[in-house]
């Protein structure tokens, strides 16, 4: 004898019913088969909805009824029954009875648990009959037996308890004499000793199958559903989840108790003692291996077997100094909840015994609050206990594994990876058996938390980074293209799964939780929604993806103003925009502090020397205990380009225009030519060396003409370059006369910094600096005479983009 159970999706369409029948037909060739079925997918919910509507005098219950009717008749039509077939008459009769019951509820305005059970029973009665008739119609030896005549319970409606002595006897007697090869049983439904219709709890068809399997002492119970087994976590929320091959009864029970809906928690009980394995299989993919639940010892690479979650949790906190040392306090609390039939899902008690926290179903919260407040009325009045606190919109996440107890540091890993992703933990409980660690978090963080933990415990090999890029001009575009090109390499070689989840220019923005398809990103962006800076932030925050990084590829002050908000959400920031780092010292410090506090990296290597590893080198020197004594540098790729190309045969205006066209200047070239850009860079290096300094502390000797300094638009500025050509030729001539090169030099010495155009003699390391190159010389305690020198291209879209990319990878490797 074999016992199989098919769930709501498995019997939810004619196509799936045909799948079920072919599976049964195959099994029936070798053995007798008992098949337990659920209601057609979604019908139990609809029956309850119709009941609620009728109870509330809402006539739309008739629409809901008609929908239920249509769903069943559609399936019957597709199964090709003869119009005169007895099945039509039977279904009609059942639906009429259902309609009368709903009309009755509507009339009396009342829906008791007893009536509710009667109401939902229609779901399984209809589905089991349809399947059995279809099989008979196809000449198979099959019959439907109403399990209400076999499974006997108490009168605890909506979640009745089984009387195993009577039930086992009924089942054994029936199957001893039943003649058909395949028996279809409706799951979930039963009757009380005095003949009232009862149910075994939502999801209870699994349980029916286990009761039958145990009563008949079969060798294996098969639960056929719509996924290929019990997964490492809910596959609807975590794409990377995968089926667990083997799992123990205890682990399966813990996972299902904490929300893995694929198995109704009590299902394990009846089969556990008899050692009957449960095999979970997929009706839609029958070849897939599925999961075997048994008491066989299982080994796996991770001590964590699975992660599950239950939503709609309310947390009840009872606290007060009067609780300390009072015996019987907990007893009264739990008695109160038990009297109200409130199920406690999670308990934590502070070691001071000064507070106790309970996780319960959110729907029970009001009832619990009233009841507990009543029980402790006196203590509350005497201020020994505070009135209870109820928090809602919470969820429990749980790590489960028999082997967790033998491994140190699992909870540490769990909480640090949640913390890194800014997931606030409201309460923690560890099962006494150490088979589970559970935490209460905000409902809105569940998806991120499950993905984070899954990555931590099941995908240690790859780390997903979710990038949100603002600014896709010259540099931004190059960055996107570089990412597109390198994605595969990063995955294969660095185990980084890099995805762009948000993109924006000044007009449009797009987002994708799965990562934007980069094959036609420009087109998608053009058709995106209207961009705003706050809108971009809000979307990034709402997507709530793990390892999120905001990348600022603008030179915009308002964008820089938002870093604080990103960091406070534990979203990392990578910027080539130097405004924030060179803003007021307090702001620079604040961002650094937030980065530490929220565990969100803030990297800005490209602020100085584009892609050259200047800031990283400096931080490594400092971190390893070195001290910077002075810095000499040419830090403006644009100014270097300008003075390398400007001479008595070229025009200053033309050279500056060319630098702008090649993308070597800031969008506003005055920022470069006035020296402000270089001043910002040396300021950043000074600050990174540990000195408190502001932009106004930097001595800036301008080389621009007066009118150039005073121009108030970019166009005006260009005009002054034409007009003041003689001034610039004068600078060139003076240098040439001394056989010197003009270089724009930044210096940091003795806590002071300056920037100025200098005439560099031919024996100086700066003399031969070509094109748009930068050079930095760090004199430190460890490099007192021969400085540490970093030299190379210090401007250009490609190298700046690769500098940003390097910062992103730095975060990925962390
Ligand atoms: P059935 O109607 O077949 O009883 P259920 O909807 O009750 O199916 O259970 C299957 C569903 O359980 C899956 O579709 C999936 O969404 C959900 N689920 C939640 N957690 C898990 C998990 N860890 N493994 C597999 N499925 C899970
Ligand atoms: N049909 C019932 C429910 O939806 C029982 C089940 O599907 O297992 O809860
Ligand atoms: Mg189910």
TrEMBL record:
GO molecular function: aspartate kinase activity; homoserine dehydrogenase activity
EC number: 1.1.1.3, 2.7.2.4
Limits of the ACT domain: 399-472
Keyword set, alphabetical order: Amino-acid biosynthesis, ATP-binding, Kinase, Lysine biosynthesis, Metal-binding, Methionine biosynthesis, Multifunctional enzyme, NAD, NADP, Nucleotide-binding, Oxidoreductase, Sodium, Threonine biosynthesis, Transferase
Stored Pfam families: AA_kinase, ACT_9, Homoserine_dh, NAD_binding_3
PROSITE patterns linked: ACT, ASPARTOKINASE, HOMOSER_DHGENASE
Function text: Bifunctional aspartate kinase and homoserine dehydrogenase that catalyzes the first and the third steps toward the synthesis of lysine, methionine and threonine from aspartate.
Similarity comment: family membership: In the C-terminal section; belongs to the homoserine dehydrogenase family. In the N-terminal section; belongs to the aspartokinase family.
Protein name stated in the entry: Bifunctional aspartate kinase/homoserine dehydrogenase I
Organism annotation: Mariniflexile soesokkakense
